[in-house]
Design goal:
7-stranded mixed β-sheet, alpha/beta, single chain, about 400 residues
């Protein structure tokens, strides 16, 4: 066990946050409106006269339920959101609902307009996966005024009392998983008096409530080691505000790590990169490689997302672990919640304390994620069919 000397004067680093906005044309998926039967009263349905693009793979006009569910999703360019939309649409149609899915191409203003359009179309329930959690309050208020329930999906709608429920993964639980993995792989509990490991943190956006919960969960595990000196952060950057990265995750994490290594780790090594995303883990990896780190002194690096490259890195012992979020579970839970709301029964809730959106505490159902490392990657991701062995063999 190596001994390291404390008492090093800590410097102050500053990082500039890069902000950007985007407003692109929306991409829309919508069901055709069925004509009323002869013995039914016809209702007014707003016509569509725009040029929106439609993904016919998401359309199924065989449903017969008069109730319509609207899904406001971030971007059709991200396969994850397309998969979530398809899973929810399939589940809802199996229950007889009609479904309108719209993608906002990562434009917050566009998404707000889409939700207002759902209100005008008098849908029965709106599910929103916010692009920017703080910029949909007016649209959500319009839904509330029209007595349309709003369910927040995966990301919490902020600054409004118009959100009924929230369905997401347990973000604090994700932080605890990552903290426990660091504790185990760095053998923190086995350190003798006077021994310590060095650590630097790479957290999520300061504007993301879920990212703060992940930070809190990680610190539940790691803060005692920081307090008793078995963990040392030589930059002194341990607060959420000082460690949050809002944009350009890979590039920003790489820049931070590169500066940390040059400014604080010339006399001793960095042992742990506590990262909360695979993209940040990639950035840390590149900075470490450029600084000359090799297998013999390679640090613990964590991530989240179980991206294909991250899984390859785990097998190659470059990245220590990642967190797998099975979004099919999330989509199924949301379908069950929607059905309960529209049937006027109480949906299953397992958290009524953590998710305060600056106005109300939103009743939530939290799904359990899975930590993946070299020990269980085969079982969790390959045996399940999520990835094939060929895909992992070809990944970089």
């Amino acid at each position: 066990m190596k001994k390291k000397l404390l008492g090093i004067t800590l410097g102050t680093l500053t990082a500039a946050a890069m902000l950007f906005g985007c407003g692109k044309d929306e991409q829309t998926v919508t069901d055709p409106v069925e004509p009323p039967k002869e013995d039914e009263e016809q209702t007014d349905v707003p016509s569509r006269t725009d040029d929106t693009q439609t993904d016919d793979t998401l359309i199924d006009d065989t449903t017969e339920n008069g109730k319509k569910i609207a899904l406001a999703m971030p971007a059709q360019s991200d396969k994850r959101w397309v998969d979530d939309a398809e899973a929810m649409k399939k589940g809802l149609e199996a229950k007889g609902y009609r479904v309108d899915v719209q993608f906002a191409d990562d434009g917050p203003t566009q998404q707000a307009e889409q939700i207002k359009g759902f209100v005008e179309a008098q849908v029965d329930c709106i599910v929103a996966a916010p692009i920017d959690s703080g910029k949909l309050s007016d649209a959500a208020e319009a839904a509330k005024n029209a007595d349309i329930p709003v369910i927040s999906y995966d990301r919490l709608l902020m600054d409004t009392d118009a959100v009924y429920y929230y369905v997401a993964f347990d973000r604090k639980g994700i932080g605890r998983m990552l903290g426990q993995e660091i504790e185990e792989k760095a053998e923190l509990s086995k350190l003798d008096d006077g021994d310590y490991k060095t650590i630097e943190f790479f957290m999520g956006s300061s504007e993301d409530h879920d990212a703060y919960l992940t930070y809190e969960g990680m610190m539940e595990v790691l803060q005692p080691y920081l307090d008793d000196g078995r963990l040392v952060c030589k930059t002194g950057r341990t607060s959420f505000e000082d460690t949050s990265i809002s944009e350009e995750f890979l590039e920003t994490a790489k820049g931070w790590c590169k500066n940390y290594l040059a400014g604080y780790y010339t006399d001793e090594e960095l042992d742990i990169c506590a990262s909360v995303s695979d993209s940040m883990a990639y950035g840390c990896k590149e900075a470490l490689q450029e600084a000359g780190y090799i297998a013999d002194n390679w640090p613990v690096i964590t991530g989240q997302g179980c991206e294909l490259s991250a899984c390859r890195h785990i097998l190659d012992e470059i990245q220590t672990a990642s967190v797998y979020l099975d979004t099919s579970i999330l989509a199924d839970r949301c379908v069950t919640m929607i059905d309960a709301v529209l049937e006027e029964t109480e949906p299953e809730i397992n958290d009524t304390e953590q998710y305060h959106n600056n106005v109300i505490t939103v009743p939530s159902f939290l799904c359990t994620p899975t930590l993946v490392d070299a020990d269980n990657l085969q079982e969790v991701l390959i045996d399940s069919g999520y990835y094939t062995k060929e895909q992992l063999d070809e990944a970089e």
